[in-house]
Write a structure and sequence with these properties.
It is built from 12 helices and 20 strands. By secondary structure, it is α/β, with parallel strands linked by helices. It folds into 2 domains: 125 residues, NAD(P)-binding Rossmann-like Domain (Rossmann fold); 227 residues, 2-Layer Sandwich (Dihydrodipicolinate Reductase, domain 2), CATH 3.30.360.10. The longest helix has 17 residues. The radius of gyration is 21 Å and the shape is globular. The protein binds nicotinamide-adenine-dinucleotide (NAD). The site of nicotinamide-adenine-dinucleotide has 24 residues, from helix 1.
Length: 395
């Protein structure tokens, strides 16, 4: 192993995604020069990863405050629910840690601004964990986009059909606008499919560390589950001179993993990050193909990347600024697009399915259209101006 400074890391929120991260990275941490110095969770003993952490001698703490009483960490990875991101990120930075905060940044734009302000005051690095922004193949693709290899962007589109059942929606903060008086704004676009919106903005940023800014959008939001937010979203966003079509549903019968297609003047690019296909290909109109390599394989690259930032070897690549177009979009649609209630039926897996909805989204995606261009069944789209959008604290 190359001699490198050991980076100490504390992880908060180990029961859900935190356990997944640790399952795939515990055996890699040493090679990355990262030492796990604490696991924080009020329910640590129930976390699937706890036996492995216990076997490694990682100490547990009920809260981040308790950890920082007698401990320090170079990096704090936050996998806690959205409503705690602001509080936990600020606490960690004020205690001297750089922060890798799971996506989304937080629930609202003012919270994100507060976090960025504390990062500046404390001189700490505050990274947002949208993993696609740390994947080498995605970064190489972005370099080529910025260098004009493909010409101007024309239309980007993404569709995800991920059935989610009643167990998913039974989780305490899932699909809530607020929880215990704190904003959450959790939804399919804020949480499970957030990556596929963020990556469209990220790839159109004018520098490696920035994202394109949305100008306006039109869209529909629907719900068939008994929830406060929405379980289907279809948004056509205008940004950086291109059309970005984002579609995602949890009320579908068949799992269809994220599809991402980017059309430029000179090429069409497909990003696949599933178990079956893990690759980025650019096909130029003259038939030439450029392959960029795997995506999913490098999902946890965010940990060594942020550790290299601690070592002064790399610059932050996904900051609050980079991730803000996603949060701005979520805040704006949550406030300005009415949610259409759709009739759904529970299938044998306890997934509420809206008949014909998945087929409509798939047909729209294939044709480069939006659902309202094919049918009026899901209502007419609402237009939202985003250039001067600010969050209004009145939900
Ligand atoms: N990058 C990804 O692909 C990805 C995937 C899933 C979730 N996430 C993000 O991870 C975050 C957590 O989501 P989740 O699905 O794991 O949620 P979850 O509710 O399943 O798990 C959250 C964990 O945090 C713990 N927790 C609650 N309050 C805490 C506190 N004050 N201090 C420490 N721990 C606390 C809970 O006990 C639980 O173990 C969210 O921001 C979510 O968007 C990211």
């Amino acid at each position: 192993m190359i001699d490198m400074k050991e980076v100490t890391m504390v992880i908060a929120g180990i029961g859900g995604y935190g356990s997944t991260v640790l399952k795939f990275t515990l055996d890699k941490l040493e090679g990355w020069g990262v030492k796990l110095v604490g696991a924080v969770d009020p329910a640590w003993e129930k976390a699937p990863c706890w036996p492995a952490l216990e076997a490694m001698g990682v100490p547990h703490f009920d809260s981040l405050e308790e950890f920082y009483k007698d401990h320090k960490a170079d990096l704090a990875m936050l996998c806690t629910p959205i409503q705690f991101h602001e509080e936990h990120a600020i606490l960690a930075m004020r205690n001297g840690s750089d922060v890798l905060c799971e996506k989304p940044i937080a629930a609202t734009l003012p919270q994100a601004e507060h976090m960025a302000q504390v990062a500046q005051e404390t001189g700490r690095n505050l990274h947002i964990g949208f993993q696609l922004s740390y994947v080498p193949s995605v970064l190489e693709l972005k370099r080529d986009i910025m260098a004009g290899v493909f010409g101007a962007p024309i239309a980007f589109k993404t569709l995800t059909c991920w059935p989610r059942n009643s167990d998913y929606y039974a989780r305490p903060w899932c699909a809530r606008l607020k929880k215990n008086g704190q904003y959450v704004l959790d939804s399919i676009a804020m949480n499970a499919c957030a990556h596929y919106m963020h990556v469209l903005y990220f790839l159109l940023g004018s520098t490696m560390e920035t994202s394109a800014q949305p100008e306006w959008l039109e869209g529909i939001l629907c719900r068939a589950n008994d929830i406060e937010t929405f379980d289907t979203a279809a948004l056509r966003i205008r940004a950086a001179g291109a059309e970005l079509d984002f579609m995602a549903t949890h009320t579908c019968h068949e799992k269809v993993d994220p599809q991402i297609v980017l059309t430029f003047e000179k090429a069409v690019i497909k990003i696949a990050e599933t178990r079956e296909e893990d690759a980025i290909h650019a096909v130029f109109h003259d038939g030439t193909v450029k392959n960029y390599g795997a995506v999913r394989t490098d999902f946890y690259n965010k940990i060594p990347y942020c550790s290299d930032v601690v070592r002064g070897l790399k610059k932050p690549i996904c900051t609050v600024e980079t991730a803000t177009p996603h949060l701005k979009t979520i805040n704006a649609i949550t406030q300005h697009i009415p949610v259409v209630n759709l009739p759904g039926c529970k299938n044998e897996n306890q997934v509420t399915v809206v008949e014909g909805l998945q087929e409509c989204l798939q047909e729209a995606f294939a044709a480069g259209k939006m659902p309202w261009e094919l049918t009026d069944r899901f209502g007419a789209p609402t237009r939202v101006e985003l250039k001067n959008y600010t969050w209004e604290d009145k939900l």
